[in-house]
Write a structure and sequence with these properties.
With 253 residues, the protein is of the alpha/beta class. It is built from nine helices and seven strands; from the N terminus they run βαβαβαβαβααβαααβ. The structure holds nicotinamide-adenine-dinucleotide.
Length: 253
């Protein structure tokens, strides 16, 4: 699918991987809508790229439905490129050192990362299904998993479960939406230099980087944006989760 002149919806576009993707798609001529919980950041990025922003919590189906409608109304057509980057990276042991369980955190992470992705995929594809074909396809949905979907660390049970869900639903979603000409892909990033990562103490980041074979550095958000654009442009990519990680494998802790 071509990027130039195509409406795109980027969730989590106010920061990090989503922001880099929104900027790159806009640079390449897409009509970008940023959907983010953080209204100020979303509006700021949107104004810088000549795009549109809408505040919504991806975990709330009603808010997502309204945001998808608003994006469609803004550009007079539904988004054909959908990139789901909204997410949270909270960590907790199943049972902490004091012996407490962490089921509330588990539910919150699943709600935002997994159900949030599902909500956006649902309403975005519903809006797109009746749009005319653009060449042989209608659109493409790119979801964001994580390397932790395969090698989750201690404390990442909730996060890994949410990302494993995203990877697992990629193929059935691609199979189902095939009849509508909509592809579904997922990117599983390793460790990228975003505000989410910047919150980690320096020694933790150093330990992480020591474990990345090549290039031995954190990923650049622009490299995620490039992967997303390549998925958009290559019509034969479908139903697959691609690790983007410099060959890193996360150690147990
Ligand atoms: N940075 C990494 O190393 C890394 C690695 C693997 C996967 N990921 C995944 O990539 C995605 C983006 O991560 P990032 O590093 O850019 O994070 P980030 O914190 O920089 O950006 C996340 C954005 O999502 C928004 N957001 C959070 N909860 C939301 C909600 N409920 N509704 C709407 N918007 C919401 C935030 O406001 C923020 O703008 C996440 O899903 C994350 O799990 C990141």
């Amino acid at each position: 699918m071509k990027i130039d002149g195509t409406p795109a919806l980027v969730t989590g576009g106010g920061s990090g991987l989503g922001e880099a993707t929104a900027r790159y798609l806009a640079e390449r001529g897409a009509d970008v809508t940023i959907l983010d919980f953080d209204a100020d950041r979303a509006a700021q990025v949107a104004s810088e790229i000549g795009g549109f922003s809408v505040q919504a919590d991806v975990g709330d189906a009603g808010e997502v439905a309204a945001a998808v409608t608003a994006a469609g109304a803004r550009y007079g057509a539904p988004a054909r490129i959908v990139v789901n980057c909204a997410g949270i990276g909270l960590a907790a042991r199943i049972i902490n050192r004091a012996g407490d369980v962490s089921t509330e955190l588990f539910e919150r992470v699943i709600r935002v990362n997994l159900i949030g992705t599902y909500n956006v995929m649902s309403y975005a594809s519903q809006a797109l299904m009746t749009a005319p074909l653009l060449g042989e396809e209608r659109g493409v949905i790119i979801n964001t998993a994580s390397a932790a979907y395969q090698d989750g660390q201690v404390g990442q049970s909730a996060y890994s479960a949410s990302k494993g869900g995203i990877a697992a639903m990629c193929l059935p979603a691609a199979r189902e939406l095939a009849r509508s000409g909509i592809r579904v892909m997922a990117i599983a990033p390793g460790l990228f230099n975003t505000p989410m990562m910047e919150s980690l103490p320096e020694e933790v980041t150093a330990k992480i980087v020591a474990n990345i074979p090549f290039p031995a550095r954190l990923g650049d958000p622009d490299e995620y944006a490039l992967m997303a654009a390549q998925i958009v442009e290559n019509p034969y990519l479908n139903g697959e989760t691609i690790r983007l990680d410099g060959a890193t494998r996360l150690p147990p802790r």
